[in-house]
Amino acid sequence: MLLQQLTNGLTIGMIYALIALGYTMVYGILKIVNFAHGDIFMMGSFLGLFFMKELDLPLYLAFLLSAVVTSGIGILIERLAYRPLRMADRIVPLISALGVSTFLISLAQKLWGTEMRPFPTAFGSRTYTLGSITFSEIQILILILSFILMLGLHLFVTKTKTGTAMRATSMSLTNAALMGINTNRMISLAFGIGSALAACAGIMVGIYYNAVYPTMGYMAGINAFTAAVLGGIGSIPGAMLGGVLLGLVETLGGAYISTQYKSVISFAILIIVLLIRPSGILGKKDINKV
Amino acid sequence: MSLRKTTAVGAAAAVLIVLPLVLQQVNDYWMHIVIMIGIFSILSMSLNVIIGYAGQFALGHAAFYGIGAYSAALLMIHFQVSFWIALPAAAVIAGFFGFLLGTPVIRLRGDYLGIVTLGFGEIVRLIFVNWVDVTRGPMGLPGIPAPTLFGYTFSGKTEFYYLILALALLTFFVIHRIVHSGVGLSLMTLREDETLAQSIGIRPNKYKLLAFTVGAFFAGIAGAFWASYISFVSPDAFRYLDSVNILAMVILGGSASLPGSVLGAVILVLAPELLRYMSDYRMMLLGLAIVLMMIFKPTGFWGEKHRKYNFYGMVRKGEGK
């Protein structure tokens, strides 16, 4: 029972982690919360559905194409809605993000309707048993694919030149620019990667719960954001850790304390963590200079 | 008051008093819209105290609105309390929750404060949904009585209109007095530079708590009115999106400006109605309009003109310093 709950928690935690990475990468560089990120995740899910249902493409192509198109959407949003506001008060891009969020939700409603849509795939229904734990096919896919994506991101950020440039940009936008890094390209890259990861998460959630709908980005977005803050917003390993932790806490809390209050439990933990350690578990401490 | 200002206020007062007589001729529905503008004006003005004047980025204002509505509803249904007692009681309860939330969270800054208040808002909504014994969960509480005055029951939209007008004016007056006093100056000093404020003897925690309590108090008034007006409360009216909507009103109208908050409420309540003929596209247009507004006029329609520093009163991280 406990092992099974841990597996379920890990599965949903990996999804949260994938979405949280998008929040954290953007925050790391621009210090803004991209409140439209949950809706980018939703667009990714719908695009995956579109490629599979309307164009009859296989699952892996749906993942690939949805990730590409969604990262394009993410980059476009940054260009149009956030870049002109780079110098403004911090709250201004936030409101702009809320505008983008409204736009994306109503765009999805216009294009695909408001009702829940199932994912047209037989994939994911088979189950395997390992000792006392039952894995469904989709759970295995989520665990493996999320792991590969996160490992890939980690290697990209730590081992490649572009990744180093991206980390430099997140340390200091000004200094990175002085070192000859094209910071605008790094920002676009952060949005692109974050959106692509969100798209993959979107398709996996769509298959896992067998439901895609225009407002699905809201709760997933809030949870992922919570995960990012829990792990320390701005920190890539922090987002991964925060996502997995949140998934585990939520699932265990749901199983052993109360199903209805499982979100309350995760929010309460978030609040407690922030009060004790405002920068999150792995976040850098904010030093406030006069 | 200059002659021009007196004339403007007089004209506005005349319009506000005559408005229902005209609107009644057109359509009852428009009366409802105007009443909603009144409710959201109170909400955006009260949030403005926290965001615009104290500079605390709070995202869960719908929670206080909801606490006010549920408190008033429960008092009136279960304890047969009159509306005129339930309203201030609900406001006090909401204000108390503002104080309660404020106490631990005022140490947090900026986005962290935002996420914690957002989390608080969600927790409150989830409690409304799940505490079925008291709130009846998603089914909501029906049959909240309308206010009565000397045996006369408020039944029509016109009566409610004058009531919300009075409440909105009261809110405007009280908040105006607060923010234009020494307290208001302290709040604004705190907003611009907390360290500086501390160095000249302003206690940040005291004033931040005050802002939270006052903001929550007036949101509670709006909630109590809403409960009695619709005679039904359910968790649906107090979602995160409603908090966001109130926040957008404050920013669109102009933070640290009370007329701006009212204007923001007018715009964001009217816009979806006026765009109704575009049906499918109206929310898309609204989203687009908000983005464009932030790009071209980020201080809002009626914001402070003298603002030199940004919202948190500090240079943004990663730029300069």
Task: Explain the overall architecture.
The complex is a heterodimer of chains A (290) and B (321). Chain A has helices at residues 2-30, 37-53, 59-82, 91-112, 137-159, 161-171, 173-178, 183-209, 216-231, 236-256, 262-276, and strands at residues 127-130, 133-136. Chain A is an all-alpha fold and 290 residues long. In chain A, strands 1-2 form a two-stranded antiparallel sheet. The radius of gyration of chain A is 19 Å and the shape is globular. Chain A starts with a helix and ends in a 14-residue tail after the last helix. Chain B is mainly α. Chain B contains 13 helices and 4 strands. Chain B has helices spanning 3-26, 28-53, 61-78, 83-105, 110-130, 132-135, 157-179, 182-192, 194-199, 204-230, 240-253, 258-274, 282-296, and strands at 141-142, 148-149, 152-153, 232-233. In chain B, strands 1-4 form a two-stranded antiparallel ribbon. Chain B has a two-stranded antiparallel ribbon with strand order 2-3. In chain B, helix 1 runs antiparallel to helix 7, helix 2 (28-53) crosses helix 11 (240-253) and helix 11 (240-253) crosses helix 12 (258-274). The longest helix of chain B has 27 residues, at 204-230. Chain B is globular, with a radius of gyration of 20 Å. The model of chain B is unreliable at 306-321 (pLDDT under 50). At the A-B interface, helix 4, helix 9 and helix 11 of A face helix 5, helix 11 and helix 13 of B.
